[in-house]
Amino acid sequence: MSTKEQRRQKKLAKKRSKEIAKRKEIAREKNSLQSLAGQIKAAASGPVDRCLISSGLTDSSNKFGSVFISRKMRDGRVAVVKFLVDGLCLGVKDIAALVCFPADQSRIVEQMSESELMHEVSPAKARSLVEGAVAYAQQFEIEPHADYRKIEPIWGDVDKSECTEEFVFGDEEGKPRYVNGPYDSVRFQQQIREKLQTHAGEGNYNIVTMMGGPSMSPYEGFGEDEDWSDDPELDADIDEDVIDGKVVSDPNP
Question: Residue spans with biased composition (Acidic residues) (predicted)?
Answer without folding.
Answer: 222-242
